[in-house]
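Q: I'm building a small set of examples for a reading group on sequence design. Run inverse folding on the following structure and report the sequence directly after it, with nothing in between.
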């Protein structure tokens, strides 16, 4: 049963920038084991729209069909990334991420995906997705240690640096990893209605 995430992956010029930031900050603040991959680097840079967890293989085609149909009804829209944010507490899932503005289009897309896909996840998880949606792009994941997290909370705001950029979202991606694998890969891509891609 593959772990499945529905996401927006930025264009290459931004994924390169985000990947560099992830590598630098995971090297500085990450508390991962020496020989393991930091949590944030196990995924292509992305913004999660809906996280389904494990999906039975026999249900995957239905998931793909729902996502494709939603993509066909959704026009491309602008995603605005602004600022560095911190989430979680030192004890529970701390992390560092790029904040993403919730536009009307993004909120509607998220809501449609939750509504169509909630039957593939447990009810509590779907309710949480609906009520607490916080779009972001993870830079340092939950493997950051308490001391490093506290240090980052001092260093980063004090640097005066705050990223801001926008890009056009013109496709929905499905990220997956099989049980026993460490990294997620883009399994499927669905162009949004009206995308002008060659």
């Amino acid at each position: 049963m593959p772990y499945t995430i529905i996401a927006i992956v930025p264009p290459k010029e931004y994924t390169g920038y985000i990947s560099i930031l992830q590598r630098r900050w995971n090297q500085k603040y990450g508390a991962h084991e020496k020989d393991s991959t930091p949590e944030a680097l196990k995924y292509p840079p992305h913004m999660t729209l809906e996280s389904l967890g494990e999906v039975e293989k026999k249900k995957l085609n239905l998931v793909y069909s729902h996502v494709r149909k939603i993509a066909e009804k959704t026009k491309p829209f602008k995603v605005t990334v602004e600022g560095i944010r911190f989430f979680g507490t030192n004890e529970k899932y701390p992390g560092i991420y790029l904040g993403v503005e919730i536009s009307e289009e993004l909120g509607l897309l998220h809501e449609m995906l939750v509504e169509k896909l909630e039957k593939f996840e447990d009810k509590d998880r779907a309710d949480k997705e609906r009520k607490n949606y916080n779009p972001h792009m993870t830079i340092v994941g939950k493997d950051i240690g308490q001391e490093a997290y506290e240090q980052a909370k001092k260093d980063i705001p004090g640097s005066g640096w705050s990223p801001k950029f926008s890009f056009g979202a013109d496709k929905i991606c499905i990220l997956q990893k099989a049980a026993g694998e460490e990294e997620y890969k883009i399994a499927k891509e669905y162009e949004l209605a009206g995308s002008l891609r060659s």
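The CA atoms of residues 3 and 54 lie 4 Å apart.
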